[in-house]
Specification:
- The protein is built from five helices and 30 strands.
- It has 422 residues and is mainly beta.
- The protein folds into four domains: 123 residues, no CATH class; 38 residues, no CATH class; 115 residues, Spermadhesin, CUB domain (Jelly Rolls); 121 residues, Jelly Rolls (Sandwich), CATH 2.60.120.290.
- The protein is elongated.
C-alpha cells in the first residue's frame, strides 16, 4: 500500500519538480544541490518527502523535503488521498463517490478543491470538492481536515464534515506555550482598541482561540502602548486556512505582513507605540487560528542623551533624556543664570522624575540659588531650592522652560532630572 502511494506521489511531484532543474544541470545533481538524494521510490520512507524524478533508469526519485513542500505550495492543495479498494481510474470512484471531476493538469484543481486520485492510464487527476464543516462539528468546537494525520489531537469524527475523506478534528489539541497567559484579548474585541501599559503584556488571538474561529470574520484590533514605549510582538501559533482564503495582517505603521496557512513568523519590535491586527476568514473552511504575545520595551532616560543646563539652551525630543545642572555630579559654579527649553511633538506632554536635587537655600523664599520650571504657555513663580523636590511632574503642553540661577556664595551638587515624552 505504501509503495503504491509512493509511486503515485512521485508521478505528481515529477510534474512540478522538473521545472526547478537549472539549465545544464542533471536532475540528480540538482537533487544533491538541494540537499536530497536519489533513491528508488519505495526507499523514500515518508511519501511527503518525495520531491521529483531523478532521471535515468529505474524510476528513482529525489527524496527531499524542501522540494515536496515547494510543490505543495505551488499547487495550493489540501493533500493527496489515495483509495486502494477501487480502481483509481474508476469514474464511480471519482465522479460518484468523491463527486469530483477529471483534470489533465493538476494545477487547475484550485479554489479549495482537493486532488484525491491519479489515473496512470489516462494521465488524469481526480479533483474533488473541499471539505465542509457541519453544525455538529462546529458545536463540538472542531474543524475539518482532509486527512486524519492533519488533526493534532488525533481525535476525529468522519460524519461531522461534508465531503468524502473529510474528518472533523476535535479538541483537546496541544496548545503552544505563550508568554503572558494572564491577559488575553480577541482580535475581534468590540472596542477595537487595547491599551498596553508600560511593563505589562497581553495575548492577542483569533476569536474563540484555542478553538477554531468561525467563517465570515472581518475585524481588527489596535494595541496602543505609551508614546515612549515600543511593542515587542512574539508569535505563538499561526494555524489558518491555506493562503489566500483566511489571513491575519499585522502592521506597526512602517512594516506590514500578512500570514495565512500554517506559518511560523519571526517576531519583531514595533517602530512606534502601536501595532494593528486585521483578521479575515471567508465563507468556508476554518482552522485553529492564531495567538501572539505583546509586551512593552520603554524608554529609559538613563540610556538616552544627557543634557546640561547652561551648555544646552534648547532641546527637541520625541523620547526624552537626562538633564543635569552644570558640573553634575560635582558642584555647580557661582553666578549662573540660564534657561533651557524642551520641546516635544504636538499633542505630547513631558513627564519629569527627579533623581537628585540639592541647591543652596530654603524654600519657599529660595533667595540664593533656585530652580524654576513651567509650561511655556503658563509661567510659574514657584522656585525650588534646598533638598525639597519640585512638585512639577507633568507638563500640560508639549513645551517647558527650566530656569537655573546661583549667586556668589555657597554651591552644592545641583540636580539630575529624567524627562520622558508621553
Amino acid at each position: 500500500m505504501a509503495g503504491l502511494k509512493m509511486l503515485l506521489l512521485a508521478a505528481v511531484l515529477f510534474l512540478g519538480g522538473a521545472k526547478q532543474v537549472a539549465a545544464g544541470t542533471s536532475r540528480s545533481q540538482q537533487c544533491r544541490a538541494d540537499g536530497g538524494r536519489c533513491v528508488s521510490a519505495g526507499s523514500c520512507r515518508s511519501p511527503s518527502v518525495a520531491a521529483s524524478a531523478c532521471g535515468g533508469a529505474g524510476g528513482a526519485v529525489c527524496c527531499n523535503p524542501s522540494g515536496s513542500d515547494a510543490f505543495a505550495r505551488a499547487l495550493e492543495l489540501d493533500g493527496f488521498e489515495v483509495g486502494l479498494r477501487v480502481n483509481p481510474c474508476s469514474n464511480r470512484k471519482c465522479l460518484n463517490w468523491y463527486r469530483g471531476e477529471w483534470l489533465t493538469d493538476p494545477a487547475t484543481c484550485t479554489d479549495k478543491r482537493r486532488l484525491v486520485n491519479f489515473c496512470e492510464t489516462t494521465n488524469q487527476w481526480c479533483c474533488a470538492p473541499p471539505c465542509r464543516r457541519k453544525s455538529r462539528c462546529r458545536r463540538k468546537k472542531g474543524y475539518c481536515v482532509p486527512r486524519k494525520s492533519m488533526c493534532p489531537s488525533g481525535r476525529t469524527r468522519r460524519r461531522l464534515c461534508g465531503g468524502r475523506m473529510c474528518f472533523c478534528c476535535l479538541p483537546e489539541w496541544p496548545v503552544p506555550s505563550c508568554p503572558c497567559p494572564q491577559n488575553r484579548v480577541s482580535v475581534c474585541e468590540p472596542t477595537g482598541t487595547y491599551s498596553l501599559a508600560e511593563g505589562s503584556c497581553v495575548q492577542v488571538h483569533s476569536p474563540g482561540y484555542p478553538y477554531p474561529y468561525d467563517n465570515d470574520a472581518s475585524c481588527s484590533l489596535s494595541v496602543v502602548a505609551p508614546s515612549y514605549c515600543r511593542i515587542i510582538v512574539e508569535y505563538c501559533q499561526v494555524e489558518l486556512e491555506r493562503c489566500p482564503y483566511d489571513y491575519v495582517n499585522v502592521t506597526d505603521g512602517v512594516t506590514s505582513n500578512s500570514y495565512c496557512g500554517t506559518a511560523n513568523p519571526v517576531g519583531f519590535t514595533s517602530a512606534a507605540n502601536t501595532v494593528d491586527f486585521s483578521f479575515f476568514s471567508d465563507s468556508s473552511q476554518v482552522n485553529r487560528g492564531f495567538q501572539a504575545s505583546l509586551s512593552t520595551t520603554c524608554f529609559d532616560c538613563t540610556q538616552g542623551p544627557t543634557y546640561a543646563v547652561c551648555s544646552d539652551t534648547a532641546i527637541t525630543s520625541s523620547t526624552g533624556g537626562l538633564i543635569n545642572s552644570p558640573g553634575y555630579p560635582g558642584t555647580y559654579p557661582t553666578f549662573v543664570d540660564c534657561t533651557l527649553t524642551i520641546s516635544a511633538p504636538a499633542g505630547s506632554t513631558i513627564r519629569f522624575e527627579y533623581l537628585a536635587f540639592h541647591l543652596e537655600g530654603s524654600p519657599p523664599t529660595c533667595g540664593f540659588d533656585y530652580f524654576q520650571i513651567y509650561d511655556t504657555s503658563l509661567p510659574s513663580t514657584t522656585k525650588y531650592c534646598g533638598t525639597t523636590l519640585p512638585t512639577f511632574t507633568t507638563s500640560s503642553t508639549n513645551a517647558v522652560t527650566i530656569v537655573f540661577s546661583s549667586d556668589k556664595s555657597e554651591v552644592f551638587t545641583g540636580f539630575s532630572i529624567c524627562f520622558t515624552v508621553i
